[in-house]
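In response to reviewer comment 3 from the previous cycle, which asked for concrete evidence that the modeling workflow produces usable outputs, we include below a single protein chain processed end to end. The sequence was submitted unchanged, and the resulting structure tokens are shown without manual editing.
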Amino acid sequence: MVDEDIEILDLDEEIIYTKKEVVVESVIEEHIPVKKLEEITSAKHAMKKTKKKMGICQKLFLIISILFILGCFAFYGYRTYHYYHLTHDVVKNITLKDKLTALNNIAYQNDGLYEKNGYFYYKGTDVNNYVYYSGRLFRIIDINNGIRMIEEDTSTNLVWTFDSDYKDSYIKKWLDNYLNTLKNYDLYLEKNKWCNEAINLDEYQCDDEIEDYVGLLSIGDYLQAGGNNSYLNNETYFWTLNQDKDKNVFYINNEGNINNISKKDEMYFSYGIRPVITIKEDISIASGEGTKEDPFIIEELGNALLRDNSIGSFVKYNGDSYRILNVDDKGISLIYDGLLEVDKKYTDVYKYLNNDFLKKLNKEDLVKNDYYVNEYSFTNKYVSDNKTKKSEYITIPSIGDMFLNEYDGYWLNNYSDNELGLYYIIDENKMFFSDLSGNSHKIRPIIKLNTETVVSSGTGLKNDPLIIGEEGEDNVEKN
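The workflow returned the following structure tokens.
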């Protein structure tokens, strides 16, 4: 049965099924009057024109939207850039004291920075209180009016003297000279008070104090930080500021324990020195986060002339690492950051250095360095006697030089008994030990570069040393 509403059309031999009211346009046009057809055609053109107008509007809208979005990116990008640098400048100029004493840095248990009535102090072992200043790494002890810091390493070894207060000790005399090795200390440091009398460990009090830029750690400071369970225990022997009523000076041993066996009969023992200084509270941070790898830096680093950089700065010269030891009118003394891979008798040390080792250096860069071969006993000053002055291009360290305790097992210039041929070395405990000059030990050279030596790059940090000559130069055969 065929549906009466469906009509079968045969167009070009194809069969199409369609509703009766749906027909091909050409068929409809044959039955539509001319006037009606013109109206339909006009309507079609109007629709096409409207579609065209709508297409242009859509394109304009799209273009305007894109421009608006780009404008937003530019506007907010500028604001982000502007406020980032504004914030960055504020952080860069923040003082070290404000950075350290921010509320989120205060500890209430375990290791960290503690606060008591506006006085701040570090306690424990795991604390980020490292500051790099004047070529040396320090640890912050406490924050009051200023910021007290102690050198991370023991700088050198000396006797105290026999039955002397701190102000009359050889340590105090050495620290007076040490002050002049700190760069622009009058701009960065302020004076502090240091105890100059016997103390009782059970009740730490001091009525006799002296005022100075540099001093030593007190027993009270050490105990407050946690003693041998604190960052102040660096596993070396070093003097403290205090002594008991019998003139025995307290020191910290290599296990971090407090002891006062500083003399025996007529002999005084020699221990390490860890200078303590106080930087001003308004000193700003140049960079750093206070970790050992990224310490707080409070000064601009890296100068074009080697002589203008801090004593203690690390230097890369001729493929080897050194530290600036001293600067004078004749030149810049550098101490080898390590030990040569040779063992020599003391009697052969200078011959080897100024022949074999010297051939590997550029002699035009060097100037001769004065040195002294003196007796050093437990009652002697460390100051050298000018009558024994000698001069060579390459020398070795003497007692009283800085950075002695960085390594051990190497010869020093000083002797304990010249007739017996007993000369000093630094032993494994970073203390002096006299040995026969006929035995063999390592060598740690000192060279002296001329005053016009130029730095090509670097800041002087251990991981970014001052480069002398072309960076990466490593044409020296290692010993």
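Residues 149 and 418 are 40 Å apart (CA to CA). We consider this sufficient to address the reviewer's concern, and the full set will be provided in the supplementary archive.
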